[in-house]
Amino acid sequence: MGSLKVHLTRRDFMKFSGGAMGVAAACGCCTIPLLLNSKEAYAQALARINLSYIFVDHQAPLMVAMHKGEAFSDFGMYLKPIIDKQKYRLVVDGMEISDVEIIVAKSGSEAATLFAQRHINLASYSLPAAMVGIDAGTPMKILGPVHTEGLALVFPKGSGVKGWDGFVAHLKERGEPLKIGYHSPTSAPKMVLEGGMHRAGISFTSDPMDMSADVLMVDLRATSSLSPALISKQVDAWVGPSPHPQVAEHMGTGEIALDLRELPPQGYWHDFPCCIIAAGDEIIQSNPDAVMGFMSLMTKTAEYCNSNMEETATIVSDWIGIPVEAARKSTVVYTTTPSENWVRGAGVYMDVLNEMNTFNGDLKGKKIEDVMNRLFDFRFVS
Fold this sequence. Notes:
Layout: H1 10-26, H2 38-45, E1 47-54, H3 60-68, E2 77-83, E3 87-92, E4 95-105, H4 108-116, E5 122-126, H5 127-135, E6 140-145, E7 147-148, E8 151-155, H6 163-173, E9 178-182, H7 188-200, E10 204-205, E11 215-219, H8 226-231, E12 237-241, H9 244-251, E13 255-259, E14 275-280, H10 281-286, H11 288-307, H12 309-320, H13 324-328, E15 333-334, H14 340-355, H15 372-375
Parallel strand pairs: 1-4, 1-5, 9-11, 9-12, 10-11
Antiparallel strand pairs: 2-3, 3-4, 5-14, 6-14, 7-15, 8-12, 8-13
Helix pairs in contact: 3-11, 3-12, 4-5, 7-14
């Protein structure tokens, strides 16, 4: 898709300002205060992206793009470092078009809150959290995925629980609810696991006083709390995004009992949505060229990550501080393409969230096909 040019590019601006200066000189009014120095005016005209992401390998394309910087100039767009890991300038076709401030969020719920408070206008976080934010009235759109898969259920090392059948058998052997921790109420791992359990007739609750449920879901509030909660026996298991399950196995603090793609029915949860890239309506409308440039970079970088898995693992391990051996075991597939199967998966999230009475706004009681325009803007990846 071609660039959506609404604003002056730097070249256009310089031509305009240069011509205007010539007219002003001819008129003897070069000092007119309304005519800004072209360099200052261009700096003011740059779009401003406040970008949030989470320290998981689901956002590897962003980490790799920041790490590689100008080495990606052959893509036609890249992130020029200003302050490493904190501030960049988005360069497209040789032109600097946007400042990019980086804000790290702890979870999808926190990213949704930052969006609602207008502290960010672009973010990569979980699809369910984005849906909940849109339902609550946050003016934003989901632009497309950044990856699929990469979710797992972790039990203590040596538990002997393996696969879906092993999980079900373990539940039947217990005389009390199995406590499963999660890092955010609207995280994809939690939603996928609950969706699978719901469809299999396994009861779950968040009420610790409800002893009739098969599973008690426990909010641990951050991914950094997952393994410590298992070690301290605050929970019996936890569900989370990679690389945390792989790190737990590498460190000997847990073992992957179930990759969530294995949830029944067979094949239903393959290539399932998790993290997405979303943008505020305001920046989409006022600076579509900056949004297009960023998404084009993410598309190219996603392809690069899939083709250079060893280098990606090295970059991610250094970036978020995990053993490279754990990063190499990632099962994530990077893509910005909203495939038919991906959209179907988004519809499953919609159904599950509605069944759980999570929505109270525009999405309440709706099917995915009823709210496509409310949720998505795929122009920047199609």
